[in-house]
């Protein structure tokens, strides 16, 4: 188990990471989400051993002592994939992936490189020099390279940021099921809610150097502590409950995702449509409700200025507010 105990760190005298504690079980996939600049990369760098911190970090019984105690910063059994891929441009894709593998058993090495290139769907480019690769292709090769000597802990910083949607889904499924099968502990810093929702066992939400929410993706999504946490998963509304149920005492404000607001019912509260944004399966509608902004979904495009009624389920509001 990875144990992070009361760690604090600052780039200057002012502390930025403040008293963070959390545990990660062996083989767990943890996503770290939060607004840009909240400290996701810094946290990965601390775990890898690039910053000296107040507090302690343990991997099983071993304390990770950080750069003041290691001649070469970083731990042997941890691999860290940064946002720059650090490939060797004159070497081929296969040479980059195999760079740190022993040459004692060439057939074994060749087999391992082939297996990893298949995992990241780059086998057909094995002989291409890295300098000729696109950003997304470089990122896939870099992913294969950090797995070449299987790490015990894998730290990934925005690992799919350069990869197109078309490939991303397949690659994510391949990679995360490979890590599960190999029982590799993985922490992923990400802006992408799919990484956090679909693949993580646990999610840490960060804000300004602190962990402000921790739990399963379902817990964080269904019962977000505040609108900041909910907004990490997409567009969100925070509305006075009185808008929908003026005679019930449900609580002041409730967080509702756009798909939780129903349209076109005879009951409900009036809204004025401002914009429709096409999202593929539906339109996201931006409207005004008593002077505040509201987002909801509609199967059809709605004309700006149209007045219509929307409603949310009382049971849902009660459950979100912990009232039932
Ligand atoms: N080497 C550094 N020296 C000084 N300040 C730094 C350094 N690296 C990062 N910071 C600052 O620390 C804060 C956290 O940065 P960090 O890269 O950890 O955030 P992040 O959540 O990973 O952001 P993003 O999602 O944009 O990658 C930022 O305000 C950043 O400017």
TrEMBL record:
<keyword id="KW-0067">ATP-binding</keyword>
<keyword id="KW-0813">Transport</keyword>
<dbReference type="InterPro" id="IPR027417">
    <property type="entry name" value="P-loop_NTPase"/>
</dbReference>
<dbReference type="GO" id="GO:0016887">
    <property type="term" value="F:ATP hydrolysis activity"/>
</dbReference>
<dbReference type="Pfam" id="PF00005">
    <property type="entry name" value="ABC_tran"/>
</dbReference>
<dbReference type="InterPro" id="IPR003439">
    <property type="entry name" value="ABC_transporter-like_ATP-bd"/>
</dbReference>
<feature type="domain" description="ABC transporter">
    <location>
        <begin position="2"/>
        <end position="233"/>
    </location>
</feature>
<protein>
    <submittedName>
        <fullName>ABC transporter ATP-binding protein</fullName>
    </submittedName>
</protein>
<dbReference type="InterPro" id="IPR003593">
    <property type="entry name" value="AAA+_ATPase"/>
</dbReference>
<keyword id="KW-0547">Nucleotide-binding</keyword>
<dbReference type="InterPro" id="IPR050093">
    <property type="entry name" value="ABC_SmlMolc_Importer"/>
</dbReference>
<dbReference type="InterPro" id="IPR017871">
    <property type="entry name" value="ABC_transporter-like_CS"/>
</dbReference>
<dbReference type="GO" id="GO:0005524">
    <property type="term" value="F:ATP binding"/>
</dbReference>
């Amino acid at each position: 188990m990875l144990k992070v105990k009361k760690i604090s760190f600052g780039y200057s005298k002012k502390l930025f990471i403040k008293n963070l504690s959390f545990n990660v079980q062996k083989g767990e996939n943890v996503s770290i989400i939060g607004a840009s600049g909240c400290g996701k990369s810094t946290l990965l760098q601390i775990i890898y051993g690039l910053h000296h911190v107040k507090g302690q970090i343990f991997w099983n019984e071993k304390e990770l002592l950080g750069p003041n105690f290691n001649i070469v910063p970083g731990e042997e059994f941890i691999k860290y994939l940064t946002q720059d891929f650090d490939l060797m441009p004159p070497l081929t894709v296969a040479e980059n992936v195999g760079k740190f593998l022993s040459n004692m058993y060439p057939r074994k090495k060749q087999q391992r490189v082939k297996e990893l290139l298949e995992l990241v769907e780059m086998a057909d480019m094995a002989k291409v020099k890295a300098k000729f690769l696109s950003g997304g292709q470089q990122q896939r090769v870099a992913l294969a390279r950090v797995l070449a000597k299987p790490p015990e802990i894998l730290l990934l910083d925005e690992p799919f940021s350069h990869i197109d949607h078309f490939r991303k889904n397949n690659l994510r499924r391949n990679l995360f099921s490979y890590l599960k099968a190999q029982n590799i502990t993985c922490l992923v810093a990400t802006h992408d809610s799919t990484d956090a929702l679909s693949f993580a066992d646990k999610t840490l939400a960060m804000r300004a150097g602190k962990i402000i929410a921790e739990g399963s993706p379902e817990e964080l999504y269904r019962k977000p502590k505040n609108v900041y946490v909910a907004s990490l998963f997409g567009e969100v509304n925070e509305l006075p409950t009185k808008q929908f149920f003026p005679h019930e005492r449900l609580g002041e404000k409730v967080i509702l995702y756009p798909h939780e607001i129903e349209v076109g019912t005879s009951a409900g509260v009036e809204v004025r449509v401002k914009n429709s944004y096409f999202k593929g399966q539906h339109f996201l509608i931006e409207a005004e409700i008593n002077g505040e902004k509201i987002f909801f979904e509609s199967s059809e495009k709605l004309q700006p200025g149209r007045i219509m009624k929307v409603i949310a389920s009382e049971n849902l509001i009660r459950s979100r507010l912990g009232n039932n």
